[in-house]
Write a structure and sequence with these properties.
97 residues, 4 helices, alpha+beta, single chain, transmembrane, two-stranded antiparallel ribbon
Amino acid sequence: MYTQNVREGFRTFGNTILARWLYEYIRLPVVPPYGGLPVKFRTYIGEPIPYDPNITAVELAMKTKAALQSLIQKHQQIPGNICSALKERLHEGKKKD
């Protein structure tokens, strides 16, 4: 399962002077989010990963990662752009999948 435009809807301060100062002051990795921008979120459900009792947890994790990466490549514009996500929200037509 993958939700398109999540990174465009909510941001974090990340590697800024304010975040660095806050970390140095309280010694906790605090990265406050901001946003709640009105971008269009779409959730895509991928194909199920078939059960195989002979694979290990690491192999299952690699299969899951590959399936998630394919959903991201298919449905998300990389690098993400807040302006294009907002335009998509205001656009009247349906997105072709």
